[in-house]
Design a protein that fits this description.
The protein is mainly alpha-helical. It folds into two domains: 122 residues, Four Helix Bundle (Hemerythrin (Met), subunit A) (Up-down Bundle), CATH 1.20.120; 40 residues. It is 78% helix and 0% strand. The chain is flat and about 60 Å long.
Length: 166
């Protein structure tokens, strides 16, 4: 059952990536990119990496896409469709590269059928518990150093903003 979900989410992710690349309208491209990010989060959930899926949705589908859509609206990129395509060679090269990618995907799925096994240490990676244990045991000093650096940056930003107000 998980394999079926994985295949469906993978196909939808590839289709939305193709729409992102091939769309002439920047807003349509951005919306399909958001859909692609959600499909990737679904793939992470199927692979039992819940924290990575949540981070994918919050950071990429949320914050980064708001920034991308804001830049698109700010730059007014609607005039792009008036430009003519100069090279039709790109379509042929894209079709060729897409065919090669499809063949590679088929080869990977065929290899899965014949029993490629996971490494025993990769079962727990990507879960909240695993990342929490790693952060607070092996990477405690870098974690605390980054938190102090972020605190200093926030305090500096508040001081600079307060000076501009006064």
């Amino acid at each position: 059952m998980t394999f079926i979900f994985f295949v469906i989410l993978g196909i939808l992710a590839i289709a939305s990536a193709v729409v992102t690349i091939s769309s002439r309208h920047p807003v349509t491209s951005a919306i399909s990119l958001v859909f692609h990010f959600f499909m990737l989060a679904g793939l992470y959930l199927v692979l039992q990496a819940q924290l990575i899926a949540v981070i994918q949705v919050l950071v990429y589908a949320g914050a980064i896409m708001v920034l991308v859509v804001f830049v698109i609206m700010l730059l007014n990129l609607g005039d792009e469709e008036k430009l003519k395509e100069k090279f039709n060679v790109r379509k042929g090269a894209g079709f060729l590269l897409g065919s090669v990618l499809l063949m590679l995907i088929i080869i990977v799925f065929m290899a899965q059928r014949f029993g490629v096994k996971k490494a025993p240490g990769t079962v727990n990676q990507g879960t909240i518990e695993f990342i929490g244990r790693e952060l607070f045991s092996n990477y405690l000093f870098p974690f605390e150093a980054i938190s102090l650096l972020l605190l200093a940056a926030i305090i500096g930003a508040v001081i600079l903003a307060k000076r501009k107000i006064d």
